[in-house]
Design brief:
This protein has 251 residues and is an alpha+beta fold. It is built from six helices and twelve strands. Helix content is 27%, strand content 32%. Helix 1 runs parallel beside helix 6. The C terminus is likely disordered.
Length: 251
Amino acid sequence: MRRRRIYEGKAKVLFEGPQPGTLVQYFKDDADNKRKPGIITGKGVLNNRISEYLMVRLAEIGVPTHFMRRLNMREQLVRELEIIQIEVAVRNVAAGSFCTRFGLEEGAPLPRSVVEFYLKNDELGSPLVAEEHITAFGWAATQEIDDMMQMALRINDFLCGLFHGVGLRLVDFRLEFGRLWEDEEPRIVLADEISPDSCRLWDLNTNEKLDKDRFDRDLGSVEQAYQEVARRLGVLPEAGPIDIKGPKLMQ
């Protein structure tokens, strides 16, 4: 079936949904790395399952999300939001660029969880921004920033416990939010996905990386790492990460 494509990013495609105010979110296997393009076979299938599971669990504790239901191996039905052009990162352990900026050894625990904001702009390299930049340029209002920060910390508390229960350390992760308009009033809602694409996940005992860093750093066994996260969460498809053909794209 040919459907109207609304937006295509590095890891997902958004199609017009079956009802007004809905979209179909399609998960690709693309590695989401401009410096090092590539394919992680079956990643879209696994991220669809993992993100579905985590979004449902978050909704159970009252976190509003755009997720409605999973449609098939690679697609979800989601609410259409006005996406805020800010990524919210929560860091629990020093890793990645945080180590470079502050001269820390990777793996060093942080005194407390640190929340950072990044501008969603690939051409600029998604730069780190301050609350002053966000309000000055009108990307989000002060109350919206507060809502995103509070929600991000609540999500962090919940996910840290959930992942710890399956032997994983949530090192850091990034979130996207959007505005859901209800009666002409915007409500901040969690958007995008939560998966090994957007989280750093290390084995609690060995510190083995089980996320996209395995691809970015040429560590190998990338597909197996995503499968292991899905297996520990109990959402690994019975037949394994079967690669299904995506829908025909229509400009």
